[in-house]
Write a structure and sequence with these properties.
The protein is an alpha/beta fold. The protein contains 10 helices and 9 strands. The chain has a single domain, classed as Phosphatidylinositol (PI) phosphodiesterase (TIM Barrel), CATH 3.20.20. It has an 8-stranded parallel beta barrel with strand order 1-2-4-5-6-7-8-9, surrounded by 5 helices.
Length: 256
Amino acid sequence: MHLPAFEIIAHRGGSLEAPENTLQAIEHGIAVGSDWQEIDVTLTCDGHAVVIHDDTLERTTDGSGSVSDHTLAYLTALHAGQPVPSHRTCERLKSLGIPIPDFGRRFLEATVPSLDDILANPNAHLMIEIKSHTDVARLASAVVACIHRHDAQSRVAVGSFQYDMVEEVHRLDPLLKLVAIMDSLEPLPMFLSLPISRFAVSTMIAADVVKHVPSHIPVWSWTVYRPEDVPALVLSGVRGIITDAPQAVISAFRPC
């Protein structure tokens, strides 16, 4: 089947294939040929941008408690090579007949990275999701400062579910590419008031978003776990596939 061109974004680096949001996952996403690598960023108690998805540590590390209660030094010393998918993700994988990933002892060296650690890789082409946070100004400032330190403006796009976070990033650097992340249509009018470069949306609303946004703004869709789910999305107008299985999707649609 011939499909229109689309980009492939390794979700958390490709969390079915490498431990999510680690340096090793980002290196995996790059190595298999993904166009972008998506990461999640939040704030430490001492004001640094750290790469982790959850507000708490138990699911993805050997630590415990809230991320926001700990320093960057503490967090980046935690082992992160044996994450467990969330209950919701496990249920979804089981429904699709996909084995729950078990990385065993393959990534014993993997730790929680800072955003600086990730940006230090010049080959990383990042979609940075800033997690929702009460201290919008402090977190947005920490992320933008990291990007500037690494002169990485040309190889990142920054987004959030939180409209005022995206608005603050734009205020701090009007030239950064912005991503509106949505799981419902409700915030669409607000996001369209900003110079959004991409919409990253749930597969459940992707086709509707395509109909409602200007045609020059690509719509990316999350989360795709199987290559067989790609064609319907792309034929609906989606131009980016955010997937936990980038190697599998690339093998299916960009064979050597």
